């Protein structure tokens, strides 16, 4: 996986947020990898913390990068906002090598942020964090009426759904017509 | 959500396009929220339905059509989980009838959505004649689904009609402050009949009971009545259904008095429900066949349990 020019040159790697290893930690030096999101800010994360992500763990398990190679080739996650990736990295660092607690109260309360976090966590395949996020999303509508749920979760009404479906069919029809015309042009 | 449809609705958050995520979110929701979500749109209903259908067999759905003029939907996932509910009424001024009529589609929606194996309804048949008729009609229509039907009113006429109309319902429960002269002179046929404030239940009602379990609480029966009853049973003069399970509570019940002059043995017994030790009395026939066993149960209040069974089916 290649890094972006901007990612490797202009952004300084953020230090891991975990406390230094205790004296009882294994003597083998821990390897670090680098990731960045849409904002190109590079985060330095230990291999231990990255184990939470099945996607990244799968990527790095056979790489055998040296420190320099890892630094030169940060994993780009262009589809994840910088602040969301920061949250994910912080969570992985905080829960490195620890059993995950039954609840996590540090998840964002703002629904857009939470939804973005769900998407990122699902993409990165961080199962425990995804479970917490899904619980938190479910909790958003506890005790709410249908109208309140519709507003909180931005659920379209039947009329909006029908209009959107109609629009999609119209668009699909136009595209199909365009393709047919293009094919006819090619044939000539 | 349907991926094809969700992709054409910009308002819908992207998070709903991920089916496994969506299912995990829905699985973390409780029945009232799933119900309310299903009411948001046709698409929401389609999405929620499979999750609700899985929940249905475990769910005990309980409708209360009660004197607070509200339709209350309760659900409970077993005794370990506290029940939560959703309720609705139109406005303070609206009659219950209006709320009831306008609630029919929602009640039907809930039943179809969860398709519960345990459906309970508590009817208030004392609100007004028209609402009463509609409740009877509704319960009759749901007869095959309803396995627990309750009535908690004070109308003697309604009690008689309730007992006769819903005799096929698995469990019937009556709680009502009825007149002292009130009696029932027809056979009680429910499989499982619970009567609270049961001053009206007579020994004759027990003889004529056709079901399996009869709970008679706050009864006006006396130890002497039950002693005569057991003697008649023991002598073969009269019979009750084999395997009948009677639960009776009344003031100052005393099992030694109930079994006096009847061949019996008493021995320590650990109750299955609360693992507490009590005394089990086993009543015998002249040929030394055990015909019934009696003990005291004190779970919520003290009650006498009489189980009519033979020696091959000892407790």
From TrEMBL, chain A:
Ranges of Low complexity compositional bias? 8-25, 178-188
- Could you tell me which residues belong to the region Disordered? 1-25, 160-188
Gene3D superfamilies for this protein = Potassium Channel Kv1.1, Chain A
Q: Where is the SKP1 component POZ domain?
A: 38-96
Please cite one Gene Ontology biological process associated with this protein: protein ubiquitination
**Pfam families linked:** Skp1, Skp1_POZ
Q: In which pathway does it act?
A: Protein modification; protein ubiquitination
List the biased-composition ranges (Basic and acidic residues). Answer: 165-177
Q: Does the keyword Nucleus apply?
A: no
**Chain ranges passing through the membrane:** none
Where's the SKP1 component dimerisation domain? 127-170
Keyword annotations for this protein, in alphabetical order, are:
Ubl conjugation pathway
Instruction: Provide the family line.
Output: Belongs to the SKP1 family.
General function of this protein:
Probable essential component of SCF (SKP1-CUL1-F-box protein) E3 ubiquitin-protein ligase complexes, which mediate the ubiquitination and subsequent proteasomal degradation of target proteins. Regulates cell proliferation during embryonic and larval development.
Protein name per Swiss-Prot or TrEMBL:
Skp1-related protein
**Origin species:** Caenorhabditis nigoni
Task: Quote the gene name from the UniProt entry.
Answer: Cnig_chr_III.g8742
UniProtKB/TrEMBL annotation, chain B:
Q: Which superkingdom is the protein from?
A: Eukaryota
Q: What is this protein called?
A: Uncharacterized protein
- Supply the Pfam families for this chain: F-box (PF00646), FBA_2 (PF07735)
Which InterPro entries does the record cross-reference, listed alphabetically?
F-box_dom (IPR001810), F-box_Sdz-33 (IPR012885)
Query: Which gene underlies this protein?
Result: Cnig_chr_X.g25360
- Sdz-33 F-box domain sequence ranges: 192-239
Residues of the F-box domain: 21-48
